[in-house]
Inverse folding.
């Protein structure tokens, strides 16, 4: 996966130079900060590209973006190829070792938040072509559904949306695509009827202006049974309103899933001083970042740095130190962060015993174990899909 990402980097490298020494503390920053980003054209590429331009002069370093899919981005950090990750739902899936991370090679990843957003748009929700006639999840039967390979937010989101409408993958035609950009392109070219994307993803705006048009699906809040079915697949999503994005006019409020987004993450072993500096740079340049692209105001300090963001992962101690310094870290933040840390500690310990047992069973029976299925059942029954 790293080789693929490296080739992408050679073609699509963002190198933002800055001069001067690091003025944010006594420790030394890397000369070059590598930031794992989404594929070119995706919102999770656009965000770090904008932020990098703003914060590089503050940090006094070069920042290089490395495009890749969700699992590739986490893997880049895991292998020490990237310091930062521009992520969304995979902060949750990776931390819990669920979906694509339920493998002996990966498992639960020690991801920590540097910065979070709480958007006025859906970071991942059902998007359909207008030509398909799809308006709610109940309309999906018999349609073509594009799912991004290796992206749990896409596969689980599609399954959840189908469950919302009392449907399953057996009721639709699945079209696998390689990237977020390819999912949007499938709508633009009329090769798919539906996919999961953010309402302000560039590909959705392109679909809106295409001959097939675009529609943001409505997930009615009052349909509680449907929401219960949906959240079995997407436990970190809550009923929300999208007011920004393609097809949305001023004053419109579309009922969609909502969750903390966009997210900047690191591994837990990143130095506190490094994470402190990055968080401080975000805050210092936030006025410029917030107006640089539609929906970026989700990252404003007072909107994104909230206790509910820890449903995805805990904040890194270096970020917490900065948030305390500027007075935004309250008792509610501390309690939520501690609860999530304890939850993930239980996840890590149970994963260790589970995989040891699974390997023993495989050695004795010479049969494969369905890690993803078994681990999901253990999480649901023993440790919980979210911190309680």
């Amino acid at each position: 996966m790293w080789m693929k990402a490296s080739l992408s980097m050679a073609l699509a490298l963002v190198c933002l130079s800055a001069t001067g020494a690091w003025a944010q503390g006594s420790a030394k920053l890397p000369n070059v900060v590598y930031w794992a980003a989404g594929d070119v054209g995706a919102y999770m590429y656009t965000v770090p590209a904008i932020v990098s331009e703003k914060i590089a002069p503050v940090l006094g370093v070069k920042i290089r973006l490395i495009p890749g899919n969700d699992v590739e981005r986490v893997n880049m950090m895991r292998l020490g190829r990237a310091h930062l990750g521009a992520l969304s739902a995979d902060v949750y899936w990776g931390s819990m070792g669920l979906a694509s991370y339920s493998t002996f090679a990966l498992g639960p990843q020690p991801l920590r938040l540097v910065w979070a957003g709480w958007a006025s748009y859906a970071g991942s929700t059902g998007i359909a072509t207008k030509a398909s006639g799809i308006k709610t999840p109940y309309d999906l039967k018999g349609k073509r559904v594009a799912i991004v390979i290796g992206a749990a937010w896409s596969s689980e989101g599609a399954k959840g949306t189908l469950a919302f409408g009392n449907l399953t993958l057996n009721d639709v035609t699945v079209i696998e695509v390689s990237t977020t950009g390819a999912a949007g392109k499938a709508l633009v070219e009329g090769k798919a009827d539906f996919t999961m994307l953010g309402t302000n993803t560039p590909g959705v705006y392109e679909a809106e202006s295409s001959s097939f048009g675009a529609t943001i699906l409505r997930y009615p809040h009052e349909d509680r049974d449907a929401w219960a079915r949906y959240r079995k697949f997407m436990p970190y999503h809550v009923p929300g309103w999208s007011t920004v994005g393609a097809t949305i006019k001023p004053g419109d409020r579309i009922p969609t899933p909502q969750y903390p987004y966009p997210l900047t993450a690191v591994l837990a072993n990143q130095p506190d001083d490094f994470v402190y500096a990055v968080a401080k740079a975000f805050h210092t340049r936030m006025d410029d970042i917030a107006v640089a692209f539609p929906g970026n105001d989700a990252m404003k300090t007072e909107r994104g740095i909230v206790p509910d963001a820890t449903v995805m992962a805990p904040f890194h101690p270096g970020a917490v130190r900065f948030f305390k310094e500027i007075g935004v870290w309250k008792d509610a933040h501390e309690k939520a962060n501690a609860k999530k840390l304890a939850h993930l500690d239980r996840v890590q310990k149970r994963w260790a015993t589970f995989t040891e047992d699974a390997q023993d069973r495989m050695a004795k029976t010479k049969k494969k174990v369905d890690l993803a299925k078994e681990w999901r059942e253990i999480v649901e029954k023993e440790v919980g899909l979210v911190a309680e």
Q: What stands out?
A: The chain is about 40% helix and 15% strand. The first strand starts at residue 14 and ends at 16. Residues 1-26 have pLDDT under 50 and may be disordered. Residues 331-365 form the longest helix (35 residues).
